[in-house]
Amino acid sequence: MAGTTGAVARLRAADGGADRWVVLLVLCVSLLLVAVDATVLHVAVPAVTEDLRPTGVELLWIVDAYPLVCAALLILFGTLGDRVGRRRVLLIGYGIFGAASALAAYADTPAMLIGARVLLGVGGAMIMPATLSVLRSVFPDRRERATAIGIWTAVAAVGAATGPVLGGFLIEHFWWGSVFLINIPLMALILPLGARLLPESRGDLEGPWDVLGALMAAGGVLGMVLGVKRLGVGHDPFDPATVLPLLAGAALLVFFTRRQRRLRHPLIDVRMFAAPAFSTSVGCIVLCMLALVGLELIAVQYLQLVLGLSPLETGLRLLPLTFAAMAAGATGSYTLRRIGPRLMAGGGFVLTAGAVLLLTLMGEHDRPLLLTAGFVLLGFGLQTTLFAAYESMLSEAPQDHAGGAAAIGETSYQLGAGMGIALLGSVMNAAYATGFGGLPGVPRAAADDAAHSLGEAQQVADRLGGAAGELLRSTARDSFVRGLHVTLLVSAALLLIGALAALRLPRTMCSEESAETACPEPDREPGEHPTTAHRTRAASVPPSRGPGREVAHRS
Asked: Where do the record's region annotations for Disordered lie (predicted)?
């Protein structure tokens, strides 16, 4: 009887019953918590340092353990959900995330907090791809799914941007553990709601789950993200601790890809990348996050160190970016139907490049209207592109591999964020360091120390005092603003390259209500696997009519 009831609920969700919007609400709340937790700790680092007294290495792992572990395990848990049930993986992730939040809130040693952050990463890796793949199964109609993805991507943007604001408020009024404690009541609410409302779904996949392949993917992504993060914080690219993880990660991912091509029942069907829409969508996600995270990091430094704003004021200044992203997500479905994925993604890139060029007018003095306009255009443009990319990627992927496709999208998200910090941060540092030669009255050692970062320059200037300290401080501000302009120009060039790449996306959005007649057979690219075009077209057919069907119940 229980099995029959569960099957009826699953079929009702798949057929587009009214409960699908309640399911979307549950998925968005869980995603919001995961997204907030990725950034909420940033403003709490000084308080954590004062209370727990971690070493430099321990502090680095306190901050980085969550995103590193989460990124490494996305493919593992995304593909596991395709096998054992996405709802099951999602509910287990809720439980782990809630327990880890309690452990982190009351951690009294650095090691305990690092362990809690690792567990949070495990829970986040189970939640993130599962939310997107469950969304794929409960919204079989592409038009409704586009609306749902718009809400989903807007919530992700809200969570990432809300983290610093919420963290700043909590730190000012409570203790640093409160940034984790807020997760517990919400997890206690959505865990029973999820168990009651979420439909179970899994891919109709045969053969065993490729455990070795999953571990290879986890190790490869971990090595790549770790190496990229070290580059982003200024480590020597030839340092063995940086280059070895990068090389090992790249090698593992190459072996993983070759293994998936050989297997009769692969963990991830890598032939999905032969479809131009899928591979281009993944590339667009990487470029979007590269621009967004790299520019946000530099903007935060500019607002705090050049304009002298507090962490809470800085977070509030970034809110227009969040509101614009929400607007882009809310209107994304309509825009996609009107102009299609190609023009939507390309137009979003061009709009973002224009916003970045507008921000080159920033100087050493506060121009709030200019910053607000730039952040609004930046948020709307990037979210527009992200929406088109996620929707195209998920619609092109076979239903059986929805969890794996969602994991690829989320991994691209994490890699793009790390690459943004590494690439744009390196450009910024290189441009900034050129302005400290031959300062009269400033010792050479002090100038060299100041060339590392604006924050360090201000500390050195405070120690020097007098005319030399003031000269060093003004030189550092000038160098930072000049470096900011160079970085913005590089970012604009990358965004315009993304606009050109978006030309590979489909011109129009096919309607699934008449998928067999409304969607033309895709052109097969040279060297593309002959079944890929058919596979990507079949992925947009509802489960009741296409080969990518969901299994309603499996004993």
From this structure: 513-555
Using an 8 Å Cβ cutoff, are 103 and 184 in contact? no
Quick: pLDDT tens for 187-245: 888 888 878 877 777 666 566 777 787 788 888 878 887 777 777 666 677 778 778 88
Percent helix, strand, coil in the chain (nearest 5)?
Answer: 80, 0, 20
Tokens of 324: 């614009």
Q: What is the pTM of this model?
A: 0.69
Domain end among 248, 266, 284: 266
Residue 461 C-beta-side C-alpha neighbours within 13 Å = 20
**Do residues 134 and 192 both lie within one domain?**
yes
Domain that holds residue 86: 18-201
Taking the alpha carbons at both ends of the chain, their separation in whole angstroms is: 13
Domain's final residue, options 171, 201, 231? 201
Cα separation, 438 vs 448, in Å, equals 11
DSSP character string of 428-473: HHHHHGGG-SS-TTS-HHHHHHHTT-HHHHHHHHHHH-HHHHHHHH
Of 202, 121, 197, give the one whose Cα is nearest residue 403: 202
Rg (CA), the chain: 24
Q: How far apart are the C-alpha atoms of 267 and 5, rounded to whole Å?
A: 30
> DSSP letter at 550?
B
Asked if residues 360 and 138 have their Cβ atoms less than 8 Å apart, the reply is no
Neighbours of 434 (CB within 10 A): 12
> Are the CB atoms for 93 and 126 separated by under 8 Å?
yes
Count the domains in the chain: 3
**How many whole angstroms separate alpha carbon 103 and alpha carbon 106?**
6
Q: What per-residue confidence (pLDDT) applies to 412? A: 76
Give the whole-angstrom CA distance, residue 174 versus residue 171: 5
